[in-house]
Write a structure and sequence with these properties.
It is a single chain. By secondary structure, this protein is an alpha+beta fold. The protein has one domain (about 1-35, about 60-165). The protein has two helices and ten strands; from the N terminus they run αβαβββββββββ. The protein has helices at about 1-20, 45-75; strands at about 25, 80-85, 85-95, 100-105, 110-115, 120-130, 135-145, 150, 150-155, 160-165. The strands form two sheets. Strands 2, 3, 4, 5, 6, 7 and 8 form a seven-stranded antiparallel sheet that branches. A three-stranded antiparallel sheet has the order 1-9-10. Strand 2 and strand 3 (about 85-95) form a beta hairpin. It is globular and about 40 Å long.
Length: about 170
């Protein structure tokens, strides 16, 4: 038992140190399962903790797709709408980046999706979500990239991910 705890501690310490040096396109996904992940089922072993993490990502992806589908169904033109640069973008979902989900702590999560606009451009949209119980709430959306060109990047400062200007 103490060997497992030591391994988890060392792995967590390594993950934290590596993330302090990281600057990237998106907040990075955690390397170890965390307790605030949405539980898929009950379990007590470390194997079930890993399964919970994977199920959690699956639950988040499904919840985000449901949110996008619901917004699309409610709009008159059957498009997902985001404000950018003072105008309304009408978008169709292309892909949810399941590999880009990240826990931000305190039951807050990050995800990004690719969407195609009626103007023919591909938009990378960042979603910030909060989870209460089994309910997912989208708290913020922002246009991160247009046709693959980033409008901002992500940098971790003092264990908090922040948007930084593209240089």
């Amino acid at each position: 038992m103490s060997t497992r705890l030591l391994l988890v501690f060392v792995a967590s310490l390594f993950t934290f140190a590596a993330s302090l040096l990281a600057t990237g396109e998106h907040p990075s996904a955690p390397q170890q399962p965390q307790q605030q992940q949405l539980p898929q089922g009950k379990g007590t072993s470390s194997q079930s903790a890993t399964q919970t993490m994977q199920a959690s990502q699956t639950d988040l992806a499904a919840g985000l797709r449901k949110y996008i589908d619901g917004s699309t169904r409610k709009s008159a033109d059957r498009k997902f709408h985001v404000r950018y640069g003072g105008r309304d973008l009408a978008l169709d979902l292309v892909k949810v980046h399941d590999d880009r989900f990240a826990s931000l702590g305190a039951n807050k999560y990050f995800a990004c999706v690719d969407m195609k606009g009626t103007d023919g451009k591909v938009y990378d949209i960042d979603f910030f979500m909060a989870v209460r119980g089994r309910t997912l709430n989208v708290t913020e959306t922002s246009v991160h990239k247009i046709n693959g060109k980033p409008l901002y990047n992500w940098k971790e400062e003092k264990a908090v991910w922040k948007k930084v200007r593209v240089s």
